[in-house]
């Protein structure tokens, strides 16, 4: 990669850079000064979007999954991202590791331990049967095929734009050019890019605000340090400095190495729990059964809207998860598309499902069913503990405390989460920095100061949310709101890709005549 571009007049899109900065600073001030009022407003906004427009998110989710299968199995699947004879730059393992760790890997690890507990006493689970049969089903459903379809479909769209059409503007708006035409360079393009940047900030804020307190809890458990908002903030700042420095010094090669280290630690943790946790048979049996229920009931689960609002289950959970992954689509698919040069579209989609979905399912099956096995055998009562305290972080620590050699597991968990954050933040910061430039030629990277500016910008809102003591519901609201307009843009990108890819195949056909 060439040296970072110099900051020259006309090269940097200052509106895209500073307008979000100003808005985020204003929001941070509100969260700091009026935390209770801010949380109340967030709750009202969440209800409005989730209750009124919930079906919108569900339709987009199922639609993306179906379109991913269509693209992979159709003529579009044969398109190579790059030259027709070009070979992939990264091995399948390195590519898969970077793809899995560039997005929500830290959250996957976080929720794998105990998400089933949050569903166990849900009225919807009671309607379906019992928590043994269904509490382990929804974590797999919420984190597998539909969420990853968002990433993979957009990844091939961005990869086609970058490696086949060789466009120099690495932005959401550029992916819409086949439909928008000249309007891409006008006000509509600016609106799309601003929406993308705000969504990126919302996704980062939710991720850091939700999972960082778990690392604080683990540090407290290991060292006896009192948990506080200040400690959470320090952890976030240290992560930011580490991630920025690492990305700045090592680029894609460093990210590849770190991603592989993440995967080794991640699967090492899963293997340790599976083999030495004492619940191997239960984990495997329940995991296979839960995956079977997901496959058997996939369409029904994807279209369940609870029209009478008897349980509000889709409004509380499914809609939030689709929105959460949608806001992360601003960064992760660009990164996946960038590292997928030399692969066919079919390889990217099916390879992504194999590595991304496969790794995700294994995580929820092993860690989730380990703790659920203790619950059903009466060796622990995690459901009552969560009902009494509502403290998900304390619950996860309680689960880890039951695993043999607790200090080793705690250290492994916190190191894996930090490494996951590092790779995620590297991809986010790099993608966001590219948004600050009107165009980037092949091999060029943003200026270091621009990257630093985005690192600061990306971390401000999470710190404000931590200080505001935002609840899990209010943190979810940030993603739900940001994802609403972004969903329209995502659909526009897919239509643009299909149009442009169809034109490309016709051009190739004419060249071969």
UniProtKB/TrEMBL annotation:
Membrane topology: Multi-pass membrane protein
Gene Ontology molecular functions: transmembrane transporter activity
Keyword list, A-Z: Cell membrane, Membrane, Transmembrane, Transmembrane helix, Transport
Gene Ontology cellular component annotations, sorted alphabetically: plasma membrane
Record field: transmembrane: 12-33, 53-72, 92-114, 140-162, 191-215, 227-249, 261-284, 319-336, 348-372, 392-421, 449-468, 480-498
PANTHER family: HIGH-AFFINITY CHOLINE TRANSPORT PROTEIN, HIGH-AFFINITY CHOLINE TRANSPORT PROTEIN-RELATED
Protein name: BCCT family transporter
Organism: Bacteroides stercorirosoris
Source species taxonomy: Bacteria, Pseudomonadati, Bacteroidota, Bacteroidia, Bacteroidales
């Amino acid at each position: 990669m060439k040296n970072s571009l110099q900051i020259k007049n006309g090269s940097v899109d200052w509106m895209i850079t500073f307008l979000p900065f100003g808005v985020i600073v204003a929001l941070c001030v509100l969260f700091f000064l009026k935390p209770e009022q801010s949380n109340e407003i967030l709750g009202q906004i969440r209800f409005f979007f989730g209750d009124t427009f919930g079906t919108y998110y569900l339709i987009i989710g199922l639609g993306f999954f179906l379109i991913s299968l269509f693209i992979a199995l159709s003529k579009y699947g044969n398109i190579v991202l790059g030259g027709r004879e070009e070979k992939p730059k990264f091995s399948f393992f390195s590519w898969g590791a970077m793809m899995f760790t560039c997005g929500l890997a830290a959250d996957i690890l976080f929720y794998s331990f105990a998400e089933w507990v949050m569903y166990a006493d849900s009225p919807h689970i009671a309607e379906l049967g019992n928590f043994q049969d269904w509490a382990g089903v929804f974590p797999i459903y919420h984190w597998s095929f539909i969420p990853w379809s968002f990433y993979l479909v957009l990844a091939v769209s961005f990869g086609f734009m970058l490696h086949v059409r060789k466009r120099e503007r690495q932005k959401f708006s550029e992916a819409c050019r086949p439909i928008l035409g000249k309007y891409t360079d006008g006000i509509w393009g600016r609106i799309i890019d601003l929406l993308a940047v705000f969504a990126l900030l919302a996704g980062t804020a939710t991720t850091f605000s939700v999972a960082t307190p778990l690392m604080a809890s683990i540090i407290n458990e290991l060292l006896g340090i009192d948990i506080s908002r200040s400690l959470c903030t320090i952890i976030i700042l240290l992560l930011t400095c580490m991630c920025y420095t690492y990305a700045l010094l090592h680029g894609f090669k460093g990210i590849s190495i770190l991603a592989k280290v993440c995967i080794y630690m991640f699967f090492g943790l899963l293997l340790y729990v599976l083999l030495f946790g004492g619940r191997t048979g239960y984990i495997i049996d329940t995991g296979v059964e839960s995956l079977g229920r997901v496959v058997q009931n996939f369409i029904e689960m994807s279209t369940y809207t609870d029209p009478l609002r008897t349980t509000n289950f889709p409004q509380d959970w499914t809609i939030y998860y689709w929105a959460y992954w949608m806001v992360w689509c601003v960064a992760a698919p660009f990164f996946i598309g960038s590292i997928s040069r030399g692969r066919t579209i079919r390889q990217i989609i099916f390879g992504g499902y194999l590595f991304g979905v496969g790794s995700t399912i294994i995580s929820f099956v092993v860690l989730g069913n380990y703790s659920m096995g203790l619950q059903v055998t009466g060796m622990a009562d995690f459901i009552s503990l969560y009902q009494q305290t509502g403290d998900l972080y304390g619950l996860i620590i309680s689960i880890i405390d039951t695993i043999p050699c607790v200090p080793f597991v705690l250290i492994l968990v916190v190191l894996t989460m930090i490494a996951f954050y590092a790779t995620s933040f590297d991809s986010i910061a790099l993608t966001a920095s590219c948004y600050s430039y009107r165009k980037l030629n092949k091999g060029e990277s943003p200026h270091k100061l621009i990257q630093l500016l985005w690192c600061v910008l990306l971390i401000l809102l999470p710190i404000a949310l931590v200080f505001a003591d935002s609840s899990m519901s209010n943190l979810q609201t940030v993603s739900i709101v940001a994802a609403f307009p972004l969903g329209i843009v995502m659909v526009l990108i897919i239509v643009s890709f299909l149009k442009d890819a169809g034109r490309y195949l016709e051009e190739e056909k004419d060249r071969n005549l």
